[in-house]
Amino acid sequence: MSRDVEDLNRRLLRARDAMDRAYAEPLNVRAVASVAHISEAHFIRSFRAAFGETPHRYLQRRRVERSMFLLRETDRSITDICFDVGFMSLGTFSRTFREIVGETPSDYRAANGPVMAPNCIWMAATRPRAASSVATRSSSFGEADAPAAP
Amino acid sequence: MITKLNVATIFVLDKDEALDFYVNKLGLEKGQDVKQGSYRWVTVRVPGNNGTEISLEQPGSPLHDDATAAQLRELIAKGAMSSVVFSTDDVRGLYETLQARGVTDFTQEPIEHFYGTDMGLRDPFGNAIRILQQGKVAQKVTA
């Protein structure tokens, strides 16, 4: 039993790494689940059990974290940053950013400057926690299309 | 006064598989390999460095009871346990070398930052490894 969990965890981790690596691309749950070699429904359910949030929520927080980094460290426009980190529309980006961070991208940029520490530390440590009210379903990622957990 | 970090530990799922990865793939050298009863103490280290030994520990008897070992193994597999950072003088060359040796589990190809260029990968069990080629620290990053 435990060996099965280890094997599943290792494959879920590989899928999570794929999201961390390819957050800027238009990912969907089918593609990410295929990295773990399991069905979409099983992937969403077991990912949540292993990591405490759905794959889509994980990806949203990675994208928002990377956008926070670019807002702090660069002069790129908010529209450019939105597409840089993999959001498909400015409206979704702004709403998601506000829901997760609690302020608008421009307010965040105005209040925060560059931070001097290794990138891997910030990737891990500054990824925002999401409020419990944040929506976890999205049409572009496709979690909403997956069969519901039994 | 403490003068050196002598031994650090990475938890692995199999010591032989770990040795193969850390020595034959990553390019470290084997340090200690001592057996006492059923327990095998095995370490790896950066070659020629006289530096820190990395002890490869496997969850289980006699260090852990079965339930604890099972928990640890599941945590290792989801990347929630050990991580280490190595230094190199040629991160891009090493990236190509590792690929040639069959390493596929990269979490990040070499990327430049204000502090240098680094890459990320995982060992066969899920532990995070970062390798940094230190660079000049820029005063301020502007696009």
Number of domains of chain B: 1
Helix content of chain A: 55-70%
Number of domains of chain A: 1
How large, in whole angstroms, is the Cα Rg of chain B? 17 Å
Overall shape of chain B: globular
Task: Walk me through what this model shows.
The complex is a heterodimer of chains A (150) and B (143). Chain A is mainly α and 150 residues long. Chain A has a single domain, classed as Homeodomain-like (Arc Repressor Mutant, subunit A), CATH 1.10.10.60. Chain A is built from eight helices and no strands. In chain A, α1 crosses α2. The mean pLDDT of chain A is 88. Chain B is globular and about 45 Å long. With 143 residues, chain B is α/β, with parallel strands linked by helices. Helices cover 23% and strands 36% of the residues of chain B. Chain B has a four-stranded mixed sheet with strand order 1-4-3-2, with helices on one face. In chain B, strands 5-8-7-6 form a four-stranded mixed sheet. At the A-B interface, α1 of A face α2, β6 and β7 of B.
How does the SSE layout of this entry go?
The complex is a heterodimer of chains A (150) and B (143).
Chain A: H1 2-22, H2 29-35, H3 40-51, H4 55-73, H5 78-84, H6 90-101, H7 105-111, H8 119-125
Helix pairs in contact in A: 1-2, 4-7
Chain B: E1 7-11, H1 15-25, E2 29-36, E3 39-45, E4 53-57, H2 66-77, E5 83-87, H3 91-100, E6 106-113, E7 116-122, E8 128-134
Parallel strand pairs in B: 1-4, 5-8
Antiparallel strand pairs in B: 2-3, 3-4, 6-7, 7-8
